[in-house]
Amino acid sequence: MKVDLNSLNINQNIEKDMSSQGYSRDLKDQQIKSASRSGGFTLDINNSQTGLNDAAYKEEELKSADEIMMEAGQLDVALQRDYMTVMSNNMSKEDFAELCKDGFDLSNMSYEEQVTSLDKLKCKLAEAGMVVEGFNDDLSDEELNSITGNQALTSIIKEALRENDLPVNRENTEDITEALKKAESISAINDDKLKYMVLNKMEPTIGDLYMAEFSAGRSGGRQSKGYFRDETEGYFGKKAEVIDWEQIKDQAERIVKSAGIEADEEAMKEARWLVEEGIPLTKDTITTLNTLDNLKLPMKIRDCINQMAISISDGARAGEASLIKEKSYAGEAVDIKARVSELTSGELYKAVEADAPINIRSLTLYKEGEALNPEGSEAYTETVNSDKFITASRLLEETRLAMTTEANYRLLKSGISIDTLPLEDLVEKLKEAERDFYKPLLLDSENEGEKSNTDSLLDKRISLYKDSISVYESIKKVPLATLARVDDRGEEFTVSKVND
Question: Which is more confidently placed, 224 or 255?
Answer without folding.
Answer: 255
